[in-house]
């Protein structure tokens, strides 16, 4: 019972800490998003999509980026995050 509270508390702290890493409007930061920021934004894209419905300052994609390298990291993370689940599944063959 006590471990459920500890896990819940740690989850809330982790979510609040990582919420600072969501893509936002270009006016919120002067730092340009690069390749690794694109990878991170691609990994948290599903959560960003859900939270952007409730908070207009959270976006799915960072508009203040370096261009092609940010796009490459973003799409690479989305494809590997979702596509790898189906690529590495064992395919069962039904031999009758």
What features would you describe in this structure?
With 96 residues, the chain is an all-alpha fold. The protein contains 4 helices and no strands. Helix 2 runs parallel beside helix 4. The radius of gyration is 18 Å and the shape is globular. The relative contact order is 0.16. The mean pLDDT is 78.
> What's the total number of strands?
0
Tally of helical segments: 4
Q: From the alpha carbons, calculate the radius of gyration and give it in angstroms.
A: 18 Å
Order of helices and strands: HHHH
Q: Strand content of the residues, in percent? A: under 5%
Helix content: 55-70%
Largest sheet: none
List the helices and strands and how they pair.
Elements: H1 2-18, H2 35-43, H3 45-52, H4 68-87
